[in-house]
Design a protein that fits this description.
Layout (H helix, E strand, L loop, with lengths): L3 H6 L1 H10 L4 H5 L2 H34 L5 H33 L19 E6 L12 H8 L2 E2 H7 L6 E2 L1 H20 L4 E2 L5 E2 L1 H7 L10 E2 L6 E2 L4 H5 L5 E4 L5 E10 L18 E11 L4 H18 L4 E5 L11 E9 L4 E12 L1 H6 L1 E4 L7 E2 L1 E9 H11 L7 E2 L13 E2 L15
Parallel strand pairs: 4-9, 8-14
Antiparallel strand pairs: 1-11, 2-3, 5-7, 6-7, 9-10, 10-16, 11-12, 12-13, 13-16, 14-15, 17-18
Amino acid sequence: MLDLGFVRANLPLVEEKLRQRGADPAVVLGDFKTVDARRRESITRVEQLKSQRNKLTEEVARLKKAGQDAAAPMEETRRLKEQIERLEAEAATADAELRGTLEGIPNLPQDSVPVGSNEQANAEVKVWGEKPQFDFTPKPHWELGEQLGILDFERAAKISGARFAVYWEQGARMERALASFMLDLHTSEHGYTEVLTPYMVNSTSLFGTGQLPKFKEDLFKCENGDYWLIPTAEVPVTNLYRDETLEEAHLPVSLTSYTPCFRSEAGSYGKDVRGLIRQHQFQKVELVKFAHPEKSGEEHEKLTRHAEIVLEKLGLPYRRMLLCTGDMGFSSARTYDLEVWLPGQNTYREISSCSNFEAFQARRANIRFRPAGAKKSELVHTLNGSGLAVGRTWLAVLENYQQGDGTVRIPEALIPYMRGETVLRPRKTGNREPAAGKV
C-alpha cells in the first residue's frame, strides 16, 4: 500500500505510473483529491471547534465559580459538541474512502522497469544453458508421466476434480527429492533459514501481502472461521514479522519454506489445461527476504540468482525476463521471471517469479526496522521468489531428460536424493492396475 502523504504530494506521478501499468487513474483513484480535501477540512474544523469548546468550558467553570448564570455558554458548548461529532463522522467516512482507494492502488513500478501492456514487452535479460537436442520427437510431460505410470490425472479427478494430480512411486519420490535438494541448497549455501509455517492463514495476513481484498476470487476460503488456504508460502512467511520491529543489524533476514500452495485459478479457465502447469494444488519452495531499503535492489539480484542456481545445478536451460509495467503483479515494484525451457512443448514456461515489493507489503503489514542509534523506526523492504516451484521443476526434468525408449534420466544433483537411482523407468504395474494382492 502506498503512503497517503506520498500520493497526495505526487499525484501526477502516481497517475502516470498507473497508466504505465495499463490502469485508468480515474477508475483507480476515483475522487481522491475531493475526498482528501474533505477529510482534511473536517479534521481542521474539528480542531478549531474543540479549541472553542475548551475556552467555553473554562468560561462555564469561571461563571459557576462566581455564582453567575452559565446557561448561554453551556448551550453553546452543547451545540459545538454536536458539530464536532458530525464533523468527526464525516472525517471518518472520508478516511475510510481514502483507505479503500489506497488499498486498491497497485505498487508503482521502478523507473528501470520497461513500459508495456503485456508480456510481449518483457525484456530478456539473460539466457543460460543449451537446449537439448533429440533424435526423436520429444514428448510433453503429461504423456511421459502417464506412460511411466508415475503421473495420474484420472484418479486425481476422481478423488478431487480437474486440475489436480497424483504422483506414484518414483514420481512421488522425485517431487520430494527436488524439494529436499532445493531446501538443502538454500540453507547450506545461500544462507536462508528454513521455517515451517501453517498452511492456513487469516484475512489480515492475506491483506498484508496484497492478496486481499483485490484477489479474493483466486483464493480458497474455509467455510467455518477466518481461515484461508495459502496461495504461496510468501503469505505466512512474510507475516511472521507483522506488527514487529526488527533491528537494523539483523537485516537482511532470509527465510525459505516448503509448502503446498492452493489457487482457484479463477481467471485462467481454458489456459494450460493439459499437464501440471496450472493446478489448484502444487508444492513450492519459497524464498523471502526482509531488507534495508537501501539494500533491497541488491538483495533482489541475490534472491533471483539463488533461484537460478537451482536450475543450473539441475542442468535445465532457462532465461531471465524483466517484466514490463503491464505484466507485473499488484504488489511488485520490480519483477524478474525465470522461464525454463520445455522441449516437449517447444517453449519457455515461468518457473519462478522474483519480486521486490519495496515498502508496499511492509506498510500493509506494519513491518518495520529500527536504524542503529535512531529513535524512530522505518518500514523494511520485502522481497520474495520461488526457489523453485517444485511441480514445474519436476515436469521440466521429465521433458529435458527424456530418452528415446521412454525412460527419463535423473539429473546428477538429484541422484543422492533418489536412493541412487539414475533413471525413471515405467512402473511394472503402471498406474491403471493395483499392485498384486490389492483390490
